[in-house]
Specification:
By secondary structure, the chain is an alpha+beta fold. Helices cover 28% and strands 31% of the residues. It has one domain: Thiol Ester Dehydrase, Chain A, CATH 3.10.129.10. The chain has a 5-stranded antiparallel beta sheet with strand order 1-3-4-5-2, covered by helices on one side.
Length: 163
């Protein structure tokens, strides 16, 4: 997203990329950050409501963040290569409504994206606006498995620079 606040439209979609969850990766993440039985072994997972090894929801969220940063770095590089000055992204004041809708099993491939749902001009920071988005991940079957509503500050177009 190199667009300034004024250029962003409700409905704009940014494809962030895909990620396939492997058994080794699921186990490494769980051992370090979310050591619940259904994330630690096939045998333990078989005894739970999941029935088999599945990724931590926090793992799916971490992959989102990795792809979010990589997508924005790529866009920034492309803009610089074209001699353009991209809009700056500011911090996020937070998110809400985080949902892990379906389990993510070994071999599942998630496709992550951001869909703009709203815009708010910042009263406290007039050089910035807030972009509200749905952050989504679908599995290889097109089923939504992860979502949250995110907000991020985006730089407004400097006065006198046109579009």
């Amino acid at each position: 997203m190199t667009d300034f606040f004024e250029d962003i439209k409700i409905g704009d979609t940014l494809e962030l990329g895909e990620h396939t969850f492997t058994q080794d990766e699921i186990l490494r993440f769980a051992e370090q950050f979310d050591p619940q039985p259904f994330h630690l072994s096939e045998e333990a997972a078989a005894q739970t409501h999941f029935g088999r090894l599945c990724a931590s929801g926090w793992h799916t969220a971490s992959v989102f963040m990795k792809l979010w940063v990589a997508a924005h770095q790529k866009v920034q590089k492309e803009a610089a290569a074209q001699g353009k000055t991209p809009a700056k992204l500011g911090p996020s004041p937070g998110f809400e409504d985080l949902k892990w809708i379906k389990p993510v099993y070994v071999g599942d491939r998630l496709r992550y994206k951001r869909v703009v749902t709203g815009k708010t001009e910042s009263r406290s920071r007039p050089d910035w606006g807030l972009i509200h988005s749905d952050m989504l991940a679908e599995n290889q079957d097109g089923k939504l498995v992860f979502s949250f509503k995110g907000t991020v500050f985006v730089e407004r177009r400097p006065a006198g620079t046109g579009s």
